[in-house]
Design a protein that fits this description.
66 residues; mainly alpha; 67% helix; globular
Length: 66
């Protein structure tokens, strides 16, 4: 299993806009494109990304729901 597999599994547990934003950032996509894709103002993107990272941290600490 690749080292990115756990992160990918955790991203699947996030609400879609947050998962998309984090995947796009991981892929090196520009902030203006990320903001447009997830439907937030570019000025709000830093806050949105902090929330996304916090949600990711929360789900990565939870046991799997399988």
């Amino acid at each position: 299993m690749s080292s990115d597999a756990p992160r990918a599994e955790f991203l699947e547990r996030l609400p879609l806009p947050y998962a998309v934003a984090l995947r796009l950032r991981d892929a090196g996509v520009a902030d203006d494109v990320i903001a447009e894709r997830v439907g937030v103002d570019q000025a709000a993107l830093p806050t949105f990304m902090r929330v996304a990272e916090a949600k990711l941290a929360t789900v990565s600490d939870e046991p799997p729901t399988r």
